[in-house]
Design a protein that fits this description.
Radius of gyration: 17 Å
Largest sheet: 8 strands, antiparallel
Number of helices: 4
Number of strands: 8
Low-confidence stretches: none
CATH architecture: Roll
Oligomer: single chain
CATH class: Mainly Beta
């Protein structure tokens, strides 16, 4: 990471980014071109291993791309606030926190895992526990992304 002064390594601060953000950007390869799609997500962060869950329609372009190439990249950001540079254009910026990393996507087929993944997703998105049924799980596709290594950083608001 070029800006090591902005690097976040504290697990609690990393978890706060994952908790606060509600949308991730999933990067896939569409032949020779990148294809990026925003998705709501759920997460589990256990012993530094990040697992993300997303849901979508049971058919579609992103699922076709995952089947063709499961190597993906995720970017999550939160708390973007503009920072004024006054009369100097190059001093403008933004405060933010972000997390990103490469991983492997899998389309989850097991109904019990889909149910658990959807419950994790709903807890992340709403802060509430919801009981999902097999019928609910069968009505959507669930994508699991395991991100073995990631980086997190933040630029705080100036004092």
């Amino acid at each position: 990471m070029r800006r090591s002064d902005r690097q976040i390594t504290d697990p609690g601060a990393i978890e706060e980014i994952l908790h606060q953000a509600k949308v991730l950007h999933l990067g896939l390869m569409d032949g020779a071109r990148p294809y990026v799609v925003p998705l709501h997500y759920g997460y589990e962060l256990v012993d530094g291993k990040l697992t993300l869950y997303m849901h979508c329609a049971r058919e579609g372009h992103k699922l076709d791309l995952i089947r063709a190439n499961p190597n993906v990249f995720v970017e999550i950001d939160t708390g973007a606030v503009p920072i004024s540079g006054g009369d100097v254009a190059c001093r403008y910026g933004a405060a933010y926190s972000s997390l990103m990393g490469g991983g492997t996507a899998t389309i989850v087929e097991d109904t019990e895992e889909k149910i658990r993944a959807l419950e994790v997703l709903m807890k992340t998105q709403t802060g509430r526990a919801f009981a999902m049924t097999p019928e609910m799980a069968q009505s959507v596709a669930v994508i699991r992304v395991v991100v073995p290594a990631f980086t997190a950083k933040a630029k705080p608001l100036p004092q």
